[in-house]
Write a structure and sequence with these properties.
- This protein is an all-alpha fold.
- It has one domain: Membrane associated eicosanoid/glutathione metabolism-like domain (Four Helix Bundle (Hemerythrin (Met), subunit A)), CATH 1.20.120.
- It has four helices and no strands.
- The longest helix is centred in the middle third of the chain and has 30 residues.
Length: 129
């Protein structure tokens, strides 16, 4: 088994950990008490980054590993690294202004789509062998 998809998985989890910590920091900075999830728009953007990243992880991690198993672990790691970079760009842009999240979202979404569709093709081809 290739270590590269594992490294990408850990990178994605570390990214999620950082954006989760950022929510706590934003709660303090913008004085938004628990369990409140609305109030200051700057806080809400930080919270949306964390929530959207969690939502995307549910697609990304299985797709990364299925692609790694049925297609190629090196290509999986490359596409996965692009996803992580895209999520960083998404977070950075969204923290600045909601309308700046688009490029990062596009990069990570394209990576996920390729991983999902590539996995499907790889699974079907393995069944036909």
């Amino acid at each position: 088994m290739s270590p590269y998809p594992s490294l990408v998985t850990v990178s994605a989890l570390l990214l999620y950990f950082v954006v989760t910590i950022n929510v706590g920091r934003a709660r303090f900075k913008y004085q938004v008490p628990v369990p409140q999830t609305t109030g200051n728009p700057d806080f809400e953007r930080v919270l949306r980054v964390q929530q959207n990243t969690l939502e995307q992880l549910a697609l990304f991690i299985p797709a990364l590993w299925l692609f790694s198993i049925y297609v190629n672990p090196i290509w999986a790691a490359g596409l996965g690294a692009a996803w992580v970079v895209g999520r960083i760009a998404y977070a950075w842009g969204y923290y600045i202004a909601a309308e700046k999240r688009g490029p990062g979202f596009a990069i990570s979404s394209l990576s996920s789509i390729v991983l999902i569709l590539g996995s499907l093709v790889g699974i079907i081809l393995s069944m036909l062998k």
